[in-house]
Amino acid sequence: MTAFGKNKEDPLKYVNNIPAENPHIQIKNKEICIDNCENKPCTYYCPGRVCSWSDEEQAIQVDHTRCIECGSCPWGCPYDNIYWEFPPGGYGVHYEI
Ligand code: SF4
Ligand code: SF4
Q1: For position 83, what pLDDT does the model report?
Q2: pLDDT, position 18
Q3: Which of the pair, 96 or 66, is modelled with greater confidence?
Q4: CATH number of the structural domain spanning residue 41
Q5: Structural domain containing residue 65
Q6: Which end of the chain is more exposed for a tag (fewer CB within 10 A), N or C?
Q7: Total structural domains in the chain?
């Protein structure tokens, strides 16, 4: 299975994204991911595939440049362990209609 599951299209194909230098998404406590979160849902509910598990780092890796600002982060993590805010003005996604 590809990184995008059944839908092989990369959602970033449909947006103009100007990522800010500083991440607007952060894992609050990496230990919670390891000790409490068996299924790590952030690695599959995010349509932008922003979060991924690294065996090497033993931590969730966050690629904020892939965020399409769907707003699911604060709701999808069962431990309220993701800090998310909109990118600063002028940065982030610009949807094409
Ligand atoms: S869903 Fe939340 S607690 Fe679980 S791995 Fe992701 S960030 Fe960590
Ligand atoms: S806001 Fe949406 S696209 Fe951005 S990281 Fe959270 S779940 Fe992924």
Answers
A1: 96
A2: 94
A3: 66
A4: 3.30.70.20
A5: 25-88
A6: C
A7: 1
